[in-house]
Design goal:
The structure is a homodimer of 304-residue chains. Chain A is of the alpha/beta class and 304 residues long. Chain A has 2 domains: 255 residues, 4-Layer Sandwich (Metallo-beta-lactamase, Chain A); 41 residues, no CATH class. Chain A contains 10 helices and 18 strands. In chain A, strands 6-5-4-3-2-1-18 form a 7-stranded mixed sheet. Chain A has a 7-stranded mixed sheet with strand order 7-8-9-14-15-16-17, covered by helices on one side. In chain A, strands 10-13 form a two-stranded antiparallel ribbon. In chain A, strand 3, helix 1 and strand 4 form a beta-alpha-beta unit. In chain A, helix 9 packs parallel to helix 10. The longest helix of chain A has 12 residues.
Chain lengths: 304, 304
Amino acid sequence: MEKFEITILGCGAALPTPHHFCSSQIVNIREKLFLVDCAEGVQMQLRRSRLKFSNINNIFISHLHGDHCLGLIGLISTFSLLGRTSTLHVWAPNPLKELFQPQIDFHCQGLGFTVQLHEIDTRKRDIIFEDRSVTIETIPLKHRIPCCGYLFREKPLPRHIKRDVIDAYNIPTCYINNIKAGMDFTLPDGEIIPNSILTNPADPTRSYAYCSDTMFAPTNAEQLHNVDLLYHEATFKKDQELLSKKTFHSTTQQAAEMARLSNAKQLMIGHFSARYKNEEELLNECKETFQNTILAEENKCIKL
Amino acid sequence: MEKFEITILGCGAALPTPHHFCSSQIVNIREKLFLVDCAEGVQMQLRRSRLKFSNINNIFISHLHGDHCLGLIGLISTFSLLGRTSTLHVWAPNPLKELFQPQIDFHCQGLGFTVQLHEIDTRKRDIIFEDRSVTIETIPLKHRIPCCGYLFREKPLPRHIKRDVIDAYNIPTCYINNIKAGMDFTLPDGEIIPNSILTNPADPTRSYAYCSDTMFAPTNAEQLHNVDLLYHEATFKKDQELLSKKTFHSTTQQAAEMARLSNAKQLMIGHFSARYKNEEELLNECKETFQNTILAEENKCIKL
C-alpha cells in the first residue's frame, strides 16, 4: 500500500498544557507532507516527529485563531535557515495576507524561497489542491470566524499486475503502465486479453477529513460520506452543549454523531479543552454513539 | 534572603531543537516575575516551570528577531483566556508597535487588560524600570538589528534588626522600619543608640545581566562591573570568530572575556548554535578564560 498516514503534532484547544500542544498535524501521502494547522510550537513538534521539513510544500490552516496559526512565522524562518529554495504554499481564510504578509516581510527578510499565500472562501466546498496522488477539498465549518476543514481524497490507484500472466503472454514492459491503468492487451494474433485476466483490482482509495473548529454541522455529512478517518473536534463533554454552541465548538456526542451520519469508518477526536484531565471519559462518551473512536494524542501516527 | 532567581525557559539559538527552546527566561525578584525574551513556545515552558503566569507584569525583549519574540502573541492570548485584568508592559526596540499592535488587535480582540508597548532606544544605557525592589537598565548590544540587554540591580535591602537589643531598650514597633533603614534611636533620657548597635548589616544587593544577542562589546564591561551573574550568549566555539563577527554573535572565548573584564562573579552561557552536540566543549572553552562558568539549560533555576 502507498503511504497515507496522519501524525498528530498537537491536539489541545486554545490553552496549551504540559500534555498538549495546540492544533497541528501532518498528512503524509506518499512522502508528500501536508501540514494541517500550524500552531505555536509546530516546528519543535516536527523535529521530534523526525518528519522531513523539506517535504512540506503546502500548509492548510483552518482559521486564523492564534491556536491554529501562530507557529507559521517561526516555521517559515526555520525553513529559511535550513536553506529551503522551493515555493511554500499557505492556504487559509481571510485575512491571511493582511495579517501575515507584514510579518513575513519583517521576520523573513532575504528568504531564499517564495511564500505564496492563498486565501480561501470558507463558505463553499472547493477543490483547492490536486496532484497525481490526491485532491484536497475545503469543508465549510461553522465557527466564530471564517473556518474550513480539509478533505484529503486519494486518487484511484493503479491495478496490481499479475506478474505470471504478463510473463506467460510475453507482454513488453512498455505496456505495463497502460495495463495497470485498466487497459486490455491485444496479442499479435488479434486476440484480446481482458484487463481482469492481467491484473488484480487496485487497492481501494482512502480519504481523511479534518474538521476543527466547528459547531455541529450535519449538512457536511454528505461531503464526508464513507470517509476512512474523520478527525473531529470534541472540545467539550456532552453536558456542555450550551457552552459548545455559544463558543461555536462541538461536544463529544456531536462529534460522534457526525461520524455516524457520515458513515465514517473511524473517528478521531481532538481539540481537547484543558479543563478535562481524563480524556478517556470523552472517548467513552463518543463510543456511546460511534464505537470506532480513538483519541488524538501528540506523536500518534495513524496509518490508513 | 529575599528571592532573586533566574529560570531558563529556553537557551537555544535561532533553530529550536529537541533539546532547546529559543531564548526566554524568568527573573524572579521577590515573586515578581520579569520575562526576558519571549520565544515561540514560551507559554508551554512557563507551564512546565510552574511559575505563576499572573505574576508576570513586564516582558523585556532584547530584539525583534523571531527567536526572541514569536511567543508574545500566544502568551498574551493565554493571559486573556486565563482572565487577566492587570496591565501588561512589553519593552522592546523599534518597531515593536508597528509589528505587534496589528497582531494584538487581530488575535486578542476583547482583551480584559491593557497591553502597553514601550519602545526602547538601544543605543544608550537607560533605567527603564524601577520599583521598590529593583532597577532595570538597558545594556547597549551590538547585533544586526537594534538590540539591548537588561541589567537587574536589586535595591539596597533593610538592615537586620538585633531583636534582643531592641527588646532590651524597649523600643516601640513603630520605630523598627526606620531603624532597619539605618536610623539611630534616641532614648527618653536623650542618649543616642547608634544604629550599628541595633542592627546587623543588610544582605549585599545582587545583580543579574542578560546579554543576548551581541558581538563582543567590551565597552559594556564598565556597566557590568561586579555583576553577580552574567548571562552572555556564546553562539559559537572560539574557532568561529570570523563567523561570529559576520553574524554579530559571540564566541565562548569572547563571552568569557566579557565576564573577566566585568569582574563578574559567575558566567552563564547560552544561545547555543544547533551545530554543537556536546555543549561541555563550549563550557570548557569558557573556563580557560573564566573558571566560574556554567551552561544555561532549560528548566535550570539559579538562585543568586
